From TrEMBL:
Source species of the chain: Brassica oleracea var. italica (Broccoli)
Protein EC: 2.4.-.-
Keywords, ordered alphabetically: Cell wall biogenesis/degradation, Glycoprotein, Glycosyltransferase, Golgi apparatus, Manganese, Membrane, Metal-binding, Signal-anchor, Transferase, Transmembrane, Transmembrane helix
Cell compartments where the protein resides: Golgi apparatus membrane
A GO term from the CC aspect: Golgi membrane
Protein name per Swiss-Prot or TrEMBL: Glycosyltransferases
Amino acid sequence: MASIRRTLSPVYHDRHYENGGAPFSPSSTSSSLSQKSSGKHSSSSDPKASRRGPWRRPFYQFLAFFLIGFVLGMTPYGQIDDVNGTDRFNFEIKPPNVEESLKRREEVAVDGVSFSAESKNKKEEDFAPRKLVIVVTPTYNRAMQAYYLHRVAQTLRLEEPPVLWIVVEGNAASFETSEILRKTGVMYRHLVCKRNTTSIKDRGVHQRNTALEHIELHKLDGVVYFADDDNIYSLELFQSLRQIRRFGTWPVAMLAPSKNKAILEGPVCNGSQVIGWHTNEKSKRLRRFHVDMSGFAFNSTILWDPKRWRRPFSHPTRQLDTVKEGFQETTFIEQVVADESDMEGVPPACSRILNWHLHLDALDVPYPQGWVMQKNLEAVITVG
């Protein structure tokens, strides 16, 4: 390859140089080389000078952009409401052209809250707790006892709570009755009458009195109804009991002793006012009130709060076993009310039959041999 050699400039001998040396003299050349080498060594030997150079510029650029972004981020783009007084530092930032929509939303929200509050207050005012229905059932050991108890229990299960079923047995609480009551799903209390009922024609008198003592002792607040286990009851009857304020009564249909016709016994009503009585038996025409035992119900507070009802009697309200058979109803009602003005016809006009008293208990149906025991809890039967 061709090489181009640069010509040297002419030597000026008349030029003065520092240190008195010529430009290309050995002393000058050596001094220049020594200066260059010393400069290189000095620059390479200083590490701080080499580090400062490459990162200073990008660092300052990053710091500048960060400060610009921070200032832009803190700058509000909406409208700031001016405030006066002590609330100068409490300002609200709103986006532009949104004030009207916010006001509309607030009005709708306030209307919704006020409407829900009003409806809640109305519901609380309309709500009234249902009265407790206290059903008193005397029972005793016989062939159809389980069937009768199951039938009454199935009716009570269909009624809305609260319902309390007070079942009263004589002498001792049988295991069979306890098992039936446990499986019914109805709130119940199983009581025992300790009175001797062998010499009494109507054994249910003392059993009902045992239930009345229990209600008075525990001050149960509700409507008391005597429901024998061998009667037939409609669901509407138990629904109507909660409407009774003091004493309610209704007509009951019964089979005649010959069982070939039905007899109606109970009140004659004009609306809810009792104005007369149905009766067909001559032996019972001397009664003051012609009502069947399952044809009336009354407020339980009459038993334990007589001052509230201004009752003149100071003795407890109980059924009497000293009167003739068939007169227990009227003698008991005379302790509860003064006359028909204190009664309420159920349902209004007393136009429907709500329960039947059939007298269908089969007295001549014998138990199998060895099944009749004096003490049910100690029964041992040998099968062979």
